[in-house]
Design brief:
Blueprint: H1 10-16, E1 28-29, E2 36-37, E3 48-49, E4 52-53
Antiparallel strand pairs: 1-2, 3-4
Length: 60
Amino acid sequence: MAVPKRKTSPSKRNMRRSHHKLANNAYVEDKDSGELRRPHHIDLKSGMYRGKQILEPKED
């Protein structure tokens, strides 16, 4: 059975885990409303997705 010869130092352990961080959310500016929205998601302000009306527009 494979057993480590030495204890992994906290520095080495943390360097290995450096790629485990969460990425920031990407936002794009909507062409029509100018609002920020996630790519491939419905614009909640206007209710549009890919040029089609999906939801009723939000009343503010």
